[in-house]
Amino acid sequence: MRDAYVLGVGMIKFGRYPEKDVSELAAEAALLALKDAGMTIHDVQLLASGNLFQANAMVGQRLLQQIGQTGIPVINVSNACATGSTAFREAYFAVGSGEYDVAMAVGSEQMGKAGLLGGGGGRESVEGILGSGLMPAVFGQAGVEHMRQHGTTIEHFAKVSVKNHKHSTKNPLSQYQNEVQLEDVLGARMIAYPNTLYMCCPTGDGAAAAIVVSESIMKKFAAARSVKIACSVLTSDPWTPRDLTFPDVSSLTRNAAKMAYDKAGVGPADLDLVELHDCFATAELLHYENLGLCKDGEAARGVDEGWFEWGGKTPVNVSGGLLSKGHPLGATGVANIYEVVTHLRGQAGARQVENAKVGLAHVIGLGSACTIHILTV
Amino acid sequence: MTQPSPPPQAAKRARPIVPFLRLGDDGEKPYLVAKQCAGCGAVYLGRRVACSKCFATGPFKEIRLSDRGTLWVYSIVYQSAPGIPTPYVAAIVDLPEGAAVRCTIIDVEPQPEQLPFGMPVEMVTKKVREDKDGNDVIAFFFRPVKK
Fold this sequence. Notes:
The complex is a heterodimer.
Chain A: E1 5-11, H1 22-37, E2 46-50, H2 59-67, E3 74-77, H3 83-96, E4 102-110, H4 135-150, H5 154-168, H6 182-187, E5 190-192, E6 195-196, E7 205-213, H7 215-222, E8 227-236, H8 251-264, E9 273-275, H9 281-290, H10 299-304, H11 321-325, H12 329-344, E10 358-365, E11 369-376
Parallel strand pairs in A: 2-3, 2-4, 9-10
Antiparallel strand pairs in A: 1-7, 1-8, 4-7, 5-6, 8-11, 10-11
Helix pairs in contact in A: 1-2, 3-12, 4-9, 5-9
Chain B: E1 14-16, E2 21-22, E3 31-37, E4 43-44, E5 60-64, E6 68-77, E7 88-94, E8 100-105, E9 120-130, E10 136-144
Parallel strand pairs in B: 1-10
Antiparallel strand pairs in B: 2-3, 3-4, 3-5, 6-7, 6-9, 7-8, 9-10
């Protein structure tokens, strides 16, 4: 594999766009990324399009119908919540393999308000009868397991939500930009213990795009602000004793983290910022340990001492995270890349992590798929 | 010319909600079954083409699971899909044969203090609905073992 770089990124504000087609959302993000790269669609040699809810409806081609049908190869990607980041990885491989010099990854989603409930609840459903397969309960149980093993409390999880909502007030592209207090989070409606409403990511719509290029293109266009993709890792869940009934959200992240640090030649202490998959507040706390940002059993202390806040030793989800920025499933993985790139270029405005040189973007899709990308300048 | 006789009405009967629940014959108590890999001992609820732990393609032995186990973890679900009554305790129960079972805990207050880790639980079954043919659909639940 040869080196590949991110030359352009674009993202629309996450929110609700019922009046638009998802291909229009994707097109808007693609045009923003092209403008950012100083390119047009005629420069793009391959498109990887991530979308989950319309996985059988050729969103990538529909996107090109909106902005330019150049006849390039299009890959439509679906990989649960790791859909967008897997699309980005396809763009990386297209360039890294030497076959293409310019590839675009676009992640898009239009979820509506029902989110993942849209497809469930049929006559033969076992939901509520044989426990729960819904995400709030699955990640609730994952949090309860951390309580069981390490004595973590609901307050620790709630503080994660307070942090990410606070971060989002400085991100104009975040779906929500409201600060919440600890008592607001703890007093909010319980969704699935221990996650209350503010500890669950919202449903929503959105899109993000990134242009991946070879070194020669990078030097030709904008060498001064290029960001290198130091590694791209994708894992699935290894066999663990309870995994088939109690999804193991940790092992595949741990495997991915080890591979990512090895490939990129950096360690957790080198990371200036991390965008990780906080679909629920419980998930974020687990991933501090899974990604090696702290030792096992230390996450709750890290939360209490502010290690992961903006200005802390490893700022996590300074974008507001999925909890507040939003989680339009297919868009999320590319939006994480957008956030890290924006900081590494020093263009993140009020939320800028000072002097950021190394950033990590992590996504997990249940089922399961985990991606980690480490980006450097 | 004789009219063909209508097909005999299938007798209404009870059927389990999942294949790994056996309702038992002649008053026998219902029980769960699992497939166990003869090579490595890994236990699966439901069929498996090959063992996802050791990759052996078999043989798999059917084993009968205990009706008593312990609570591993839980969540208390207050918001679910439309039409599903809440709250309910969505749990993972460990059985001594090495199986982890996703289930709902009943006969308990849905409060964390009523759900201590490692709590002994026992399996019970009950009708949850009728299917489109009018058969009773039987599901399993776990409840705290009474002291």
